[in-house]
């Protein structure tokens, strides 16, 4: 048993921006007065006034070594180029939007739900009159080909199809490729499914993200595991792919900053069907808990393998694991699994149950976060187009004009990079179902 | 499921192996022969990339007259993406095609003429053949003897059709693409391919290439700068040491950020442009330059060009020139003028207003010459003429390296 460590005041859920600012001001004032009294004013001056992306104070990088030379991503990204005065063209027969979804591989189920979410949003928007009577039309392209394919698809959508904006992609490597390209061709993109924190951290002023990222997930899991559950020794078992490589970073950093560095990180390949060596290493380390990070179908099999191997430690994971396919592949071994989720999937917001009913009727399956944020993002984009008119720069300006958006998932709160920093919740598998704790 | 591109590359690799023409260089990169007689890439230009040059090049910091070309003057588009000035020939890349001004007449090429795509991202002249290489958003095109041939990921070793930059180095033609870097030896038709699976780059999103003696540097989106020592085949990676996207912990400790938008090299100095500021490496130490403490026109840098030991910057807030000590910022104003500020070691020493200015402050590319600089902007192609008289506290020196 490791010795108890001092308690860390990591909030269970990030407070609102205003609350954070007010609280920070009070805290800073108190600390400044104290420092003045004891002659430590220079140390106080090194404390950051506001943390990036509502990062809890305990998790701010390098917080113990003073103010960094420079702090980025505090100001909204701006597009300072020309184009806003470009006149609106004659009303086209249809308003085309590009949508990138995976149509092959492990992500097909999520891609299908993403498509259903887009379709429902556009059906409803068109029932309201579309854009000045012209219907919105989605042009779908596959993102699941080799790295870089999304760039080729975006070029075709923008130049050959004349789309006004793009929704997607599901996978963050495709979204990264697209974001740089769309900076060149000056076309807005609404990301609805990506979880890589770096996706909105490059200052490209053309991309907004609707879904909370793995920074939020990492912080929440760290708080749950180390503070609420009081566990000390954690091992990570993750997929050897880009999704998991990028996703685990913030959790690992949080663990280190809370003085509980990860005891072991082992990886699995998505094509593997058994993991005896990795499981043996986990057994040797004997962690208090295991964090499992990967795509739901594979993660479900891994979870089953962990349990059948006799590893009974609590298992935690990111929101992407909250998927029916994980329950299917893990079977009864999924019991007790704790995951984050961007919102209460059983009815958090006022509009959720009504959305769920409409989605179920239209798609024939239950909605999830991928479907819901695809719907949210498409509605957000439609609203921006209606307000801006058919001008890509002005559409972009409208996307970056709001700091909040009330939708079916609750209230989306954008930070300075237009990344959703709304608090995430925790769910547990109980009796074969994900239940919000 | 295997994509067509990888299928093609696999077939090419298989064919090359069966023909015995596939080699692995010291660095581990596969060379794919696209002709049965293909061979490995030729040796690079040798030398010390960090040595101070024996001879300096004339570089002007101060420009006091600007003129701008637009569609009314013959450009295909006012959005100018790249420019290459060669004597009296002016090659201009735009989002609506390639244009050449020769003898006051304009000739244009676009997709219908065989160009890979109408959006041109970069231009490079091959010194041996004299061919012009044109990077586009849908392939790498080669203008040779009045003919255009376009290489794509389906019919060549090009890693991706979205090509962000092309440069030449000796016989080699380097292309930075959205999914890796390719180098073609046009004399043999052989390609060398680099991505995250056979080089040090941990992401394959290549956006810029610079070449110097014995070295090739690739600017990676999210991966800093990677350097290939072409004499040994070894890779080296330069990353922001603090490993955080939201801060730069220490000034001058390495690249300012891992999201690299452009790289340029000349006279022993490597410049890294980012959307967070500028960095410079001299082979031993890094230096950081930011708008707030150096006087750059802006921190969102679309392009950096190097001439001697001076950097020319295209930012979203104007055009700038920096020699490490002096930073001159040019910002177009309403009415066609320019506000110019001169900083020396971070201290404002002069500000002026000029009656002419660049077409726009959204600058995508610069091409410095001896007594002029071409500036590709979001509204036209501008030419700055070097000041001949005193300019603020200084005047352009006769020979500044």
Instruction: Output the structural class of chain B.
Output: mainly beta
The CATH H-level superfamily of the largest domain in chain A is: Response regulator
Instruction: Indicate the multimeric state.
Output: heterodimer
Query: Can you tell me the CATH topology of the largest domain in chain A?
Result: Rossmann fold
What's the CATH C level of chain B? Mainly Beta
List low-pLDDT spans of chain B.
Answer: 1-42
Report the CATH architecture of the largest domain in chain A: 3-Layer(aba) Sandwich
Largest interface: A-B, 40 and 58 residues
Which architecture of chain B does the CATH hierarchy give at level 2? 7 Propeller
Arrangement of strands in the largest sheet of chain A: 8-7-9-10-11-14-15
Instruction: Report the β-strand fraction of chain A as a percent range.
Output: 5-15%
- Percent of residues in helices of chain B comes to under 10%
**What overall geometry of chain A do the principal axes of the alpha carbons give?**
globular
Domains counted in the coordinates of chain B: how many? Answer: 1
Query: Which structural class do the helices and strands of chain A define?
Result: alpha/beta
Count of the separate structural domains of chain A: 3
> What's the pLDDT, averaged over the residues of chain B?
88
Instruction: Report Rg of chain B.
Output: 21 Å
| Tally of helical segments of chain B | 2
List the main descriptive attributes of the protein structure presented here.
heterodimer; A: 437 residues; alpha/beta; Rossmann fold; 3 domains; 7-stranded mixed beta sheet; 5-stranded parallel beta sheet; 15% strand; disordered N terminus; B: 401 residues; mainly beta; Methylamine Dehydrogenase, Chain H; 6-stranded antiparallel beta sheet; globular
